[in-house]
Every structure is written in C-alpha cells, then in structure tokens.
Amino acid sequence: MSALGGGGVVGKTPKSQLMTTRETCRFLKVQQHTLYRYLRGRQIPAFKLGSEWRFVRSDLEQWIREGQTRLPINS
C-alpha cells in the first residue's frame, strides 16, 4: 500500500500530532524567539505549511530523546 493513498501512513497521523509554533513552544517550554533561533539554525525538525511552520510531535519527541536540545551554555 502506498504511503499517501487510501488510508496510508499520512492518513493515520492524528491531527493532534501536528503542532503550531505556539503549541510547540508550550510543549518544549521555550520562548518563541528561542524556537525561531532553532529554526534559523535548522536545529529542530519542522516544515512549512504555506507560510507557517509546523511540527510533528513524534519527531520532536525523538529529537529530544536523541539529545538535540543540549546546546552549549553560552549559546
């Protein structure tokens, strides 16, 4: 079965798993300027939907598990 057609992988992703920048800031407990700094540095998994950034919760959870949020103290 294809990933996009007829109830494939994309169709099974819960809508609540797709998050806005505001929801992502709450989830990560960071300020909006910090999230945009991560985006500018391509340090966080995200994609644009139109002109707005979107985040997949499971991608963020994996990113956290892999230790990607550990930035140098002086950053």
Fold topology:
Blueprint: H1 9-12, E1 18-19, H2 21-28, H3 32-40, E2 47-49, E3 52-56, H4 57-65
What this model shows, in words?
By secondary structure, this protein is of the alpha+beta class. The chain has a domain at 16-65: Arc Repressor Mutant, subunit A (Orthogonal Bundle). It contains four helices and three strands, in the order αβααββα. β2 and β3 form a beta hairpin. The chain has a three-stranded antiparallel β-sheet.
Main attributes of the structure:
75 residues; alpha+beta; Arc Repressor Mutant, subunit A; three-stranded antiparallel sheet; 4 helices; 3 strands; globular; disordered N terminus
Residue-averaged pLDDT = 80
Report the structural category. alpha+beta
**Alpha-carbon Rg, integer:** 14 Å
CATH fold group of the domain at 16-65: Arc Repressor Mutant, subunit A
Poorly predicted sequence stretches spanning 5 or more consecutive residues: 1-9
The largest sheet has its strands arranged as: 1-3-2
The CATH architecture of the domain at 16-65 is: Orthogonal Bundle
Q: Total helix count?
A: 4
Largest sheet: 3 strands, antiparallel
Alpha-carbon distance between the termini? 45 Å
The total strand number stands at 3
**What series of H and E elements makes up the topology?**
HEHHEEH
CATH class of the domain at 16-65: Mainly Alpha
State the helicity in percent bands: 40-55%
In percent, how much strand structure appears in the residues?
5-15%
Write down the overall geometry: globular
